[in-house]
Amino acid sequence: MHRFDYFAPTTVAEAVNILRSQGEGGKVIAGGTDLVPQMKERGRHPKYVVSLNRIPEIQGIEVRNGQGLRVGAATRCWAIRNHPVVVEQYNILAQGAALIGSIQTQNLATIGGNVCNAIPSADAVPAFIVAGAQARIIGPNGQRTVPLEEVFVGPNRTILAPDEILTDLLIPAPLPRSAGVYLRHCPRKELDIAIAGVGSYVQLDEAKATFTHARICLSAVAPVPLRAPRAEAALIGKPATAETIAAAAQVAAEEARPITDMRGTVEFRRHLVKVLTERTVTQSVEQIRARA
Q1: pLDDT tens-digit series, residues 72-99
Q2: Which of 138-141's residues contact partners 24+ apart within 8 Å by CB, and which partners?
Q3: Which end of the chain is more exposed for a tag (fewer CB within 10 A), N or C?
Q4: Cα–Cα nearest to 179, from 272, 65, 283
Q5: Cα separation, 173 vs 14, whole angstroms
Q6: Is the alpha carbon torsion for 252, 255, 256, 260 positive or negative?
Q7: Domains of the chain
């Protein structure tokens, strides 16, 4: 590991000032589960590192009565996985967080790191996207809030400027008669990277017979986490039947933009998207109908 300068600010404003004054060549770190191995083994040599671990304002989960959740970017995935309100009302977020590495990794890894690393196969991201998360970003020119899916530009690339920091993810309150599920496929059951993943979040009408809302996000089958708007449209206003779900799943497979590599072919990944979309939407409907 090469020599680098280390900064540990205690406020977001201080962190932004450091990034602005030090200029290019810096990296932000929180859990370090991605950056540290890259610095040790993959030839990444930042000039300086800014730690976010002493900034309380970007840590933790805030339940905002009737207005959803605020999840600080430096919140550990283990905390998301085990937060009682998240598990009860936003379970898809807990599902995604539970798939990030080992328990030891989850105790270090942060949701902000999972977002800002911009890995197409990131497991926590699709769940937050379909839940309607907004990303709050702060830099020297103030703050901006954008839909989470708009943060990603390509593999390892986001819209954040070098002197900006992702501070929070803002998730709206869950819709009535709604549920979401995230599933992935990988060669091993644990500690592996998804070949394909799908997060689905749907709402049914009062009779629990028709789709009134749908959001579907695909992972590991495009350069960025990919919304599937045509598949969503194939559900909304349609009866919540196996036939409707199967047709929408086929559309989702067509919307995917996979590549062939050592882990899977284009055809296999499209097949996985179809299967996983069908399963996630079906399981979401079953959860809604199982409630009183």
Answers
A1: 999 999 999 999 999 999 999 999 999 9
A2: 138/12, 138/16, 138/164, 138/165, 138/167, 139/16, 139/163, 139/164, 139/165, 140/16, 140/17, 140/20
A3: C
A4: 283
A5: 32
A6: positive
A7: 5-51 (3.30.43.10), 56-171 (3.30.465.10), 178-290 (3.30.390.50)
